[in-house]
Amino acid sequence: xxxxxxxxxxxxxxxxxxxGCDIGDLDxxxxxxxxxxxxxxxxTLYDELxxxxxxxxxxxxxxxxxxxxxxxxPDGPRRMELSVSDEDLYDRIYGGWLGRxxxxxxxxxxEGWPRDRIDxxxxxxxxxxxxxxxxYDEQQISPALKTSTRDNIDxxxxxxxxxxxxxxxxxxxxxxxxxxxxxxANVWMDHMPINLLYTAERAAYRNFAIGYxxxxxxxxxNPQREWIGAQIRADIFGYAAPGxxxxxxxxxxxxxxxxxxxxxxxxxxxxxxxxxxAYVTDDIIEIINVGLSEIPAKCRLAEAIHDTLAWCQExxxxxxVWDKINERYGHYSGVHTxxxxxxxxxxxxFGNNDYENGIxxxxxxxxxxxxNGATVGSILGLxxxxxxxxxxxxxxxxxxxxxxxxxxxxxxxxELAERTRTIAKDVMTMPDHEPEEESVPGExxxxxxxxxxxxxxxxxxxxxxxxPDLTGTxxxxxxxxxxxxxVKTEGDKVTFDFILxxxxxxxxxxxxxxxxxxxxxxxxxxxxFEIGINGERGK
Length: 539
Known about the structure:
Radius of gyration: 24 Å
Distance between the termini: 53 Å
Largest sheet: 9 strands, antiparallel
Shape: globular
C-alpha cells in the first residue's frame, strides 16, 4: 500500500515552490528516496518540506487566519446599503442557483480540456460560435456525461460544484451566523461520501477521519490546498449575505479553511464577496473590486485579478486576454485557484450585459470548465435575476438538481432558493456592525474555558475540569471518564473532543461552541447525530 508521502510528495514540492520556498536539494533527495523505496525517508523529507518558510525574496503577504487576512485587505464597503423586496430577493437567489447550474452543465462535458481541444471539437461539430450546450459525441465524450449535453438535458446532473452549495446551506440552516469551520467539517462527514470528493477536499476529509480538524485538516499532507476546491464552494455564502461582502467572506473563510490555505482560502472569499455585492450593483468592475477588498492586497490571487481586469479593459477582446492569462498564469495546475479565478474575471467582464456570453467565454477558456462556468453563471444569474435568464439555458433543467448530499439527492432548484432566502433574510436582520474577529490566543491560562463545568443532561450530569494549560477531563456521571482532546480556544470560541461511552464502546464527540460569562453553549457532533451541550461554571 502506498504511503501518503509517496502519493503526494512531488505535488508538495511544487506547492512549496509556488508558496515562495527555496527547496534547495530536497528535490534530488526525494528522487533518491522514491527510487530506493525508502518510505521512512519520504516521511522525513515531507516533514522538511512542511517546515520551510517563504524566502525573503518572496514579495507576497499571504496569511491563512481571518484576523491576518482582514488586516491586509484594502479598503472596501464591508456592508452596502440594500433595499430589496421578498420577491426580488427570491428572484435574485433563484437566478444564482439556476445560473450556476446552467454554467456548470455547459462546462461539465469538457472539464479539463485545453482551450484548443474545446474549440477544435466545437468547430468539427459546427458549433462555433457556441450558442447552446456542448453537442454529444460518443467518441469524445463519456456516456456518463451525456445528460449534460445538448438535447440530452432534463435536469442538472450530479456534480460536486452543485453538491457544495447544498452542504453549505445545510450548515447555515444548522448554525446560521454561528457557522464555524468545525461545524462545516461535521456537515461534510454527516452528509457527503468521501469517494465523491476530490483533491484538497478528499485530503481534508481523510484528515477528519484520522483526527486532524480545522485548521490542521487543511495543511496536513494536502498539497492541493491552494487548488480551486474552496473557490467553487463560495456561492451559498454570497447568496446568504445580501449586500454584506464582509459577512459573506467571513462565512466563506469558515468553509474554506477546513481544506485550504492562503490563495485557496482567498478564492472562496473573493467569490462570496462578489456575490454579496451583486445584489447591490450591476457594475461588474465594481463587483470585482468589492471581491478584491476582502482578500489581502499583496497576494498572488489579487495580482492575477488586477492583471486580468487591466487586460480586459485594455484589449476588449477575450481571445487576446486569454492569451495574456495563459502566458502569465498558465503554469499553474489546471485546477488551481489563481489561473481559474482569472478566467472567472474574464467571463464576468465579457458577460457583464450578456449571461450567455459570460458562461460561454469562461467555458471556452478551458482548464476547470464546469467550475468556472458555474461561478460565472452564478454571479451573473444573481445579478440579472431568474426572470431575466434565457430560457434556452435554464428551461431544460426543469427546476431539478440531482445531488450526492445525503437527504438532498433529488432537489427542486426553486426549493433550494426558498431555503436560501430564509437564511438570507435572517442574516439581513443582523446588526450593522463589524463581525467578530478571530482572536489570536494568548496564554492558555487566559482562556475563559479554564475551570469546572457542570452539564445537566436529562439522564445524568456531566462534569468537565479544564486546567490552565487546557488539558482537561470529562466524567459522564455514570462511571466513565476520559481526557478532553484537541482543545482549542480563540477568544470566547471553544472546540474540543471527548468520548461518550455507549455501554462498552465509545463515540467520538466534537464540541463546537463558546463561553458566555459563566455559561458554556454549543453543540456536539458525532457519528451522524448532533446534541446540544449547555453547561454552567461549577462553584
